[in-house]
Amino acid sequence: MDRTTNVPSGGVERTIAMLELLALAEEPLKLSDVAHQLDIPKSACHRILTSLIDNGWAWQSPESDCYALTMRMALVGQKQLARLQVSDLRQPILNALAERTRELVRLTAVQNNTLVWVGSARGRRSGLVFEPDMSAGIVPHATANGKIWLASLERERALRIALEAGLGQPGQQAANAINTIEALNRELDAVAGLGYGRAVGEAEEGVGAIAVAIRQGKEVVGTMSVAAPLTRLTDERVAEILPLLARAASDMQIAW
């Protein structure tokens, strides 16, 4: 590609020029390519790219170390110019996260004082694959999605919702599920502190999930989760997936 000329030297101008360069690139670019085409030092180029990654505008391929834009710019542009329907923007975000994690990604929305499934994407086509019933109801105190939502609510309301959903009633959930108000209070305190919900074989034996909230202002309007067999969803794997899930949820908030 032709080398960009007359790029302003200020930090804001360099950042804008870098966004434009990455947006027009046909494939991810190496650090040296970006620095060369913008005619700026590699050190300055690396600082800007790191800032873009930290703020969700770019990502770096772990295989090639090349840089590319995330979907955030496309989402902002589409929302501003085309005013697309939310459903048009949701699925690509789910698909991208499923591809990167190679696990099941699901999206919920808060409707009528409960959570409902509104989207999903599967990242694994073979081997041990989790195939849930998307028409099934979401038990809030036994699911990662439900826990992060309940943790965002006033506690009395959260407990009332859980009790109405079967908290403490025998045979309602898997053996590992929380079944007392005291245990749920402790769990919601922990979830609020961590910033994500986690279920370990509670909604379905042998299956785990982690979930984060999708907010509009201060209100939680939905949740986004990654689910997998517990044999794969180890603590180490959770630590790897969480940043990807959080970034995807941030994009989903723009698309909501």
Automatic annotation (TrEMBL):
Q: Name one GO biological process term.
A: negative regulation of DNA-templated transcription
Question: Taking every annotated instance into account, which residue ranges of this chain make up the domain IclR-ED?
Answer: 72-256
Record PROSITE patterns? HTH_ICLR, ICLR_ED
Q: Name one Pfam family in it.
A: HTH_IclR
Keyword Hydrolase attributed: no
Q: Name one GO molecular function term.
A: DNA-binding transcription factor activity
Is the S-adenosyl-L-methionine keyword given for this protein?
Answer: no
**Keywords recorded for this protein, A-Z:** DNA-binding, Transcription, Transcription regulation
Q: Which InterPro entries match?
A: GAF-like_dom_sf, HTH_MetabolicPath_Reg, Tscrpt_reg_IclR_C, Tscrpt_reg_IclR_N, WH-like_DNA-bd_sf, WH_DNA-bd_sf
Which parts of the sequence belong to the HTH iclR-type domain?
Answer: 9-71
What is the protein named?
Answer: IclR family transcriptional regulator
